[in-house]
Design goal:
single chain, alpha+beta, four-stranded antiparallel beta sheet, four-stranded mixed beta sheet, elongated
Length: 127
């Protein structure tokens, strides 16, 4: 067996496992790493000055970092979404947690507030 083949056979498992552990699918420009908004009778909801949402993602631990993002489409129409900062972790655990995010001041003057999520999720939060 030549040297090039030995190096390839040695590095192949290392490259494979590194890709599995670090989230080989990459990051979505709008939503960050993979997650899902779980819609139930209770969530998502606007309560006082915050949005409470049920999230699901794969990972090794809960409390992964999300940042609330928003854009004003018009003075009456606001879109909000979460950007997941924590890279994907492949631990074969599906985690679900209810999280609260403080809303921007523009959310209180808009008559329509939509929550956007990965894979085309669009939920009217207030009208």
């Amino acid at each position: 067996m030549n040297t090039d083949m030995k190096v390839f056979l040695y590095l192949m498992p290392l490259l494979f496992f590194t890709g599995c552990l670090t989230g080989s699918e990459g990051i979505n420009a709008l939503f960050g790493y993979r997650y899902r908004v779980v819609q139930t009778d209770q969530f998502p909801v606007i309560s006082s000055d915050s949005m409470i949402v049920n999230l699901q993602y794969e990972g090794c631990n809960k409390n992964q970092e999300f940042t609330l993002q928003y854009r004003e489409k018009s003075p009456d129409h606001l879109e909000i979404w979460l950007f997941k900062n924590t890279p994907d972790q492949f631990c074969e655990l599906v985690l679900r947690e209810v999280r609260s995010f403080k809303l921007p001041p523009d959310a209180f003057s808009a008559s329509e507030v939509y929550l956007l999520g990965p894979k085309g999720v669009r939920i009217l939060m207030r009208k």
